[in-house]
Amino acid sequence: MSAIIINKANPEDLEILQKLGRETFYETFAKSNSEEAMQKYLDESFATEKIKTELNNPDSQFFIAWEEDNPIGYLKLNSGKAQTELQDELSLEIERIYVKAEYHGKKIGQLLYDKSLEIARQQYKKYIWLGVWEENVRAVNFYKKNGFVEFDKHIFRLGDDEQTDLMMKKTLD
Asked: I need a labelling partner for 27 at 20 to 30 A (CA). Which of 5, 16, 40, 97 fits?
């Protein structure tokens, strides 16, 4: 495996983020959800206008992991009013860390997570938080290994299905 580079995404990366987002979300959750619900979610969440708005929001940042010229994963961070729930000025939300399935187990998620820590410290945040589907055991264990603890739950809707997300946070030094 070549060296992995993580670059901040900009508006010119819109199509790359759409494709990467759709592909990695589908790989992660398709076997647990209906095809109809998956397509509806993908069409809404990765619509051109939605991603364009997010890319242009100064309180949101995307980072893409590259192996040579191949995008293999991405990270989306939110601060301030861009956070999906808490909107605490002292916190940074990891909204998404997704890696292509063929790169699972190769520490790409860890590199993206480490980038989130770097950003949180640069912004003098007191804690990082996120929501993760309770049945995504791989992700829950990843966050626990990195020092996150559960502090609440919320409902994530995928089609007609209400799924429980664990809300987890990590206090920074």
From this structure: 5
Domains, the chain, with CATH or none: 4-126 (3.40.630.30)
Report whether 38 contacts 157 (CB < 8 A): no
Strands (E), 60-134: 60-67, 70-78, 91-99, 127-133
CA 62 and chain centroid, separation: 9
User: Is 143 among the catalytic positions?
Assistant: yes
Of 74, 103, 113, 143, catalytic: 143
**146 membership: H or E segment, kind and range:** none
Biggest CA pair distance of the chain: 44
Residues β-bridged to residue 153: 166
The tens digit of pLDDT for each residue in 130-147 reads 999 999 999 999 999 999
pTM across the whole model: 0.93
Of 27, 134, 42, 132, the residue nearest 73 (C-alpha): 27
Distance between first and last Cα of the chain: 33
